[in-house]
Amino acid sequence: MNIQFDKTSGVAAELTITFEKADYQENVEKALKNYRKKAALPGFRPGQVPMSLMKKRFGGEITAEEVQKLLSEKLYGYLRENKIDMLGDPLASEKQQPVDFEAEQLNFIFDIALAPQFDAKLTDADKIPYYSIKVTDEMVDGQVKAYAQRGGHYDKVESYQEGDMTKGHIAELDADGNIKEGGIQKEDAVILPNYFKNDDQKKKFQGISVNTVITINPAAAYENSTIELSSLLGITKEEAENVKGDFSYQITEITRYVPAELTQELFDQVFGEGKVKGEEEFRAAIKKQLENQFAEDAQLRFMIDVRKYLEKRIGDLEWPDALLKRIMRANNPDKGEEYVEQNYAGSIKELEWHLIKEQLADQTGIKVEQDDVLETAKRQTRMQFAQYGMGNVPDEIITNYANEQLKKKEQIDGLVARCVEEKLGVALKEVVKLTKKSVTLEEFNKLFQEK
Question: Which 8-state DSSP code applies to residue 259?
Answer without folding.
Answer: P
